[in-house]
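User: hey, got a sec? need N-acetyltaurine hydrolase folded
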Amino acid sequence: MRQIMPEQSGKVQTVLGLIEPDQLGRTMTHEHLTMTFECSHVPPASGDEGLAAAPIEMKHLHWLQQNPYSHHENLLLNQEIEAVKEELLCYRKAGGGSIVENTTTGITRNLPVLRQLAKETGVHIIAGAGYYVDVTHSDETRKMTVEKLTDIIVNEILHGADGTDIRCGVIGEIGTSWPITESEKKVLRATAHAQTQLGCPVIIHPGRNKAAPGEAIRILQEAGGDISKTVMSHLDRSIYDPRELLEFAKMGSYLEYDLFGTEVLNYQFNLDVDMLSDSQRVQTLAFLIREGYEDRILIAHDIHTKHRLTKYGGHGFSHILKNIVPKMLSRGITQNQVDKILIENPKQWLTFK
Ligand SMILES: CCC(=O)NCCS(=O)(=O)O
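Assistant: Yep! Here you go:
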């Protein structure tokens, strides 16, 4: 049952309106420009309470980089609109064209700010519809039927979200935990139903378990979702074993490595795994390309805290363009393959059917 407005078919929907897919240019498919992440606060280790409460300072930077989720102020990216604007201007200078802003309901989406940033910087910004993980669902959301959730998501794309006329251009990031909760399953089914009506792109945040990406895709598939137009995010902290990665890849979603710039000894959300370094991320991209998946790969930084902005000594939104692309080329990935990952694959994904 297709409801799409004819004007959206074949186009990409940004916060400033529809554009031709060829206008996107190089695209980071998973970023946040303004959001809050207090829902994921991790209590500091014993003895670190003072550091966690101190203002962000140079002498504490290493601690902050290794413990980003234990510092309340670091979780308030929404306080940094001016710094983000400067970053976006640098991103354009570095050759960037577009950014998919994945902030959904639950982590303080702010569509007027996104529109303002798009106007002031010339970067195309595509906003996300739908809901983040269960801990952020309101009681009202939890009580909703799949049909009601579907209506809300469809409305955010066709007419505008959060009481504005600013329309989202993707569904997601749709948050899931591990195990996936009942409320999250309803949102996944609503996502699939909305996608069926609209022919739009979808992006999923999996729970922190190697089985989580496959389980989320299965739920979407059973509800009729278009997996070929769906991105699985955060694979760099989800599936480590190459054979298991190839098994997941066969399911047909886009494969997103979106934590470029994150280099940590301990991954605070799952101390049992060793988070990939940037070099290992590039090796994994090369592996997936050798295995025939170059049309399915997407990359980004998923900036969602202050400490990753250049203002705070972080790598910023231009790290992939300035540092990772040269590394990819030096490791045998061709310019043509880089262009696929940064331009062609995002374009195919973001264009409404
Ligand atoms: C809202 C930002 C987000 O969910 N980022 C993912 C962080 S992680 O789960 O991959 O560590």
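Quick note: The radius of gyration is 19 Å. Let me know if you need anything else on N-acetyltaurine hydrolase.
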